[in-house]
Amino acid sequence: MSILEAQKLGRQLFGRKDYKAALEAFTEAIELSEEVDAGLFDNRAATSEKLGDLTAALRDGKAMIHLDKSDARGYLRTAKILQLMGKRDVALGIYKYGLKHVRSGDPHCEVRAPAPGN
Question: Which helix (H) or strand (E) element contains residue 31?
Answer without folding.
Answer: helix 19-32
